[in-house]
Specification:
heterodimer, A: 230 residues, 80% helix, B: 242 residues, 38% helix, globular, binds adenosine-5'-triphosphate, binds magnesium ion
Chain lengths: 230, 242
């Protein structure tokens, strides 16, 4: 099986794999993670607000997203977004948003559910006295959250947020269902075109392994460094 | 300055404050004491509306807390509070702890806030630590920073909730010294504390609480002379014993 292992296929396709595939994967991961953390934090704050109608909305959202397979959400969203856009803007025809935008929105919304659970735990881990102290100084709710609670929650949860981002990095390969080409998709295309499945899939696996392993390693190192001295 | 009038508070079915009535005048130092669980912390936290209450009324500098039009954050900014566990913000440097609320709430320019903060830090004898983080300071030092932080807002009254009870014995003195100095400068203070030495030195009045009620509210001389209620007597003899 490895007798005719052809390194040249890999070498020749490197510009395509990384220049197109990996750039796409990293862009989608970075944007969706940032958006997901922001939205997830808002959902976590809704959940913890104690406001009668916000709490169930946040809970249902999280449970709903966590109950569906990501592939299905990506797929459905791709077909639904144009119609939702039409409904919102009142246009006469479905609004075409493009596969990338659709994927970005889907991943952001989906990951927000997971990030919100992490941020919720983070916010709850900050002692009540911190809120009291901030309020006693005259800070309002938004200022207390922004300057006192969220920075600490975010720091405490950074390792978990990054670990979740590593999962997201791998999950982005699911965009093949709406015909987008990420790193995995690019490798797959070359494999099919040149009939070099073994080479390309082994190489793709090694790349994912190398990136995710070193990322996990860095997260653990970071964990020790960012811990707030108490 | 502070008027507490018939305040009642419940946690669910449990009543933790019962008809509490007292006042603190400008420049007065009032010490609140009483056994654990008697409602001292709860009472002092109702004064700056950190704890809501169901019955009665409280006003600070003539502003009623229950009034819907009262801007609570704005009122709290004028009432300094010091907590048992310091509650400095651990992710911010000492300087940033001192300037955060000045900038955000009072909208002071950064430089002005810094100057004011550092001046107060010097006053509590910690100028050398401006760049450090709270976790790098001892408990006594942290509590002095917390006092400086409260003072940086130019409060009209200071509330203390057992400021020394989480400290190692050898650090109690340094915090009390700052408080004594503050009292002597004419700051209006309401202090929950069991430091009777402090009460003797600077208090005008002593309030004794038990089971959510103000049992005794007397001038200092009177209180230490002969407390009228047997419960206060018992309490006093217990904490003065050691
Ligand atoms: N969040 C809460 N929920 C229910 N009960 C509470 C809560 N906080 C305080 N209590 C109860 O209210 C009563 C008064 O508590 P508080 O903390 O005011 O007492 P304290 O006099 O400050 O006591 P200590 O000396 O221990 O600080 C206690 O019986 C306590 O158990
Ligand atoms: Mg207490």
């Amino acid at each position: 099986m490895f007798g005719d292992f052809d390194y040249k296929v890999i070498l020749a396709s490197l510009p395509y794999l990384f220049g197109t595939g990996m750039v796409f994967t990293v862009t989608l991961t970075a944007l969706a993670a940032s958006g997901g953390i922001v939205l997830g934090t808002i959902i976590a704050m809704m959940r913890l607000s104690g406001v009668a109608f916000l709490v169930p909305i946040a809970r249902i959202y999280v449970d709903f997203m966590r109950s569906l397979p990501l592939v299905l959400v990506i797929f459905w969203f791709y077909f639904l977004v144009p119609y939702i856009g039409q409904w919102i803007t009142g246009a006469s025809r479905p609004i075409s948003v493009g596969a990338f935008t659709s994927a970005l929105i889907t991943f952001t919304l989906f990951e927000a559910a997971f990030f919100s659970e992490i941020m919720r735990a983070g916010i709850q881990s900050i002692p009540r006295g911190q809120t009291s102290a901030a309020q006693a100084l005259g800070l309002n709710y938004v200022q207390t959250m922004k300057s006192v609670i969220l920075p600490q929650a975010f720091r405490n949860m950074l390792p978990l947020l990054l670990t979740q981002t590593i999962v997201l990095f791998q999950d982005t390969s699911l965009v093949y269902v709406i015909s987008l080409t990420d790193f995995m998709g690019a490798a797959s295309k070359v494999a099919q075109r040149d009939g070099r499945l073994v080479e390309m899939y082994i190489f793709a696996a090694l790349v994912y392994l190398a990136i995710c392993f070193s990322a996990s390693f860095l997260v653990r190192r970071l964990q020790r460094r960012v811990a707030i001295i108490r | 300055m502070i008027a507490i009038d018939g305040v009642g508070k419940w946690y669910g079915p449990v009543q933790v404050l019962k008809g509490c009535t007292t006042q603190v005048s400008k420049g007065e130092v009032v010490v609140v004491c009483g056994p654990s669980g008697s409602g001292k912390s709860t009472l002092i936290k109702t004064v700056n509306a950190l704890e809501p209450f169901q019955e009665g009324a409280i006003s600070v500098d003539g502003i009623a807390l229950k009034d819907k039009r009262t801007d609570l954050p704005k009122l709290r900014a004028r009432v300094g509070m010091v907590f048992q566990h310091f509650e400095l913000f651990p992710h911010l440097s000492i300087t940033d702890n001192l300037t955060l609320a000045q900038c955000k709430v009072l909208k002071r320019p950064r430089e002005e806030a810094r100057t004011r903060g550092l001046k107060l830090l010097e006053r509590v004898g910690l100028s050398a630590h401006a760049q450090k983080f709270p976790g790098q300071l001892s408990g006594g030092q942290q509590q002095r920073v917390a006092i400086a932080r409260a003072l940086s807002m130019d409060p009209i009254v200071m509330l203390f909730d057992e400021p020394t009870s989480a400290l190692d014995p050898e650090m109690v003195g340094e915090v009390l010294d700052v408080m004594v100095q503050l009292a002597r400068e004419g700051m209006t203070m309401m202090c929950v504390t069991h430091e009777m030495g402090f009460a003797r030195k600077v208090a005008n009045r002593v309030i004794f609480m038990d089971r959510g009620e103000i049992v005794e509210d007397a001038q200092k001389e009177e209180f230490f002379g002969q407390p009228r209620s047997p419960r206060a007597q018992q309490f006093l003899s217990k904490i003065l014993a050691h």
